[in-house]
Amino acid sequence: METVLPPGQRYVRGFIIYAALGLPEVDIESYRLRVTGSVDKELEFSYEALLNNPVKTTYRSDFHCVTKWSVRDVLWEGIPVRWFAEQAGVKNGAAWVFFRCLDGYMAPVPIEDALSEKAIVVLKMNGEPLKLENGYPCRAFIPHLYGWKSAKHLCEIEFSDTYMDGFWEAYGYHERGNVWEEERFKQGFSRHVRRNPLVTHK
Ligand SMILES: Nc1nc2c(c(=O)[nH]1)N[C@H]1C(S)=C(S)[C@@H](COP(=O)(O)O)O[C@H]1N2
Ligand SMILES: [Mo]
């Protein structure tokens, strides 16, 4: 399959490591991934429970950082965000998903993007468990969004009815960050009405 680069991007050899808030120390025994906020039932998962979850998605996709570097053809493996949403019972009013991290980093994503088919909680990259610098124990990944939405050291998936800036959005980066629309910087997107795809709208 011929790969197409989104506008303004160029390929580099490998991931350029970003840790805006520093690399966290991870105590894997006490680590939990929590599902919180606008849900019927809050949930939490140990790293072992995530690894043993038979619900898995694997696919190849490029990775695109908003600073214009892309990595070609990464093999991603993880659990669909949608599975977590279904387990917790996301409420009708949920419109945003906040991916919160052990280092305090946060990335908001519109719910329809966060629950799209390929949006996953990554456990393995290129067949290997995540290295600390690539987001161990797990990171979010949504192939059609810029890399800053791929929150590393993920520890909480919070469903919210209202929008809130995360780390980069507070500096003017886009609320959604779709690579094909070149949504690098804010243009008033957060005022649009969001729709929870798990709800049948009339
Ligand atoms: N916790 C955390 N997650 C993060 C970041 C960060 O600084 N801290 N940087 C983001 C940005 S801007 C990019 S491009 C990717 C980079 O992923 P990498 O460090 O694995 O190359 O991580 C994203 N997730
Ligand atoms: Mo980035």
Number of strands: 11
Tell me the name of the CATH homologous superfamily of the domain at 55-160: Oxidoreductase, molybdopterin-binding domain
- Report the average pLDDT across residues: 95
- What compounds are bound to the protein? the ligand Nc1nc2c(c(=O)[nH]1)N[C@H]1C(S)=C(S)[C@@H](COP(=O)(O)O)O[C@H]1N2, molybdenum atom
Order of helices and strands: EEEHEEHEEHEEEE
Query: Radius of gyration, rounded?
Result: 16 Å
Our measurement of the CA-to-CA distance between the termini, rounded to an integer number of angstroms, reads: 38 Å
Largest sheet: 6 strands, mixed
Kindly identify the CATH topology of the domain at 55-160. Sulfite Oxidase, Chain A, domain 2
CATH first level of the domain at 55-160: which class?
Answer: Alpha Beta
- Could you say which structural class the secondary elements and strand pairing correspond to? mainly beta
The parts where pLDDT drops under 50 for at least 5 residues are none
Strand percentage lies at: 25-35%
What is the molecular shape? globular
CATH architecture label of the domain at 55-160: Alpha-Beta Complex
Q: Keyphrases for this structure?
A:
202 residues; mainly beta; Sulfite Oxidase, Chain A, domain 2; six-stranded mixed β-sheet; 3 helices; 11 strands; 29% strand; binds molybdenum atom
How would you briefly describe this protein structure?
The protein is mainly beta. It has three helices and eleven strands, in the order βββαββαββαββββ.
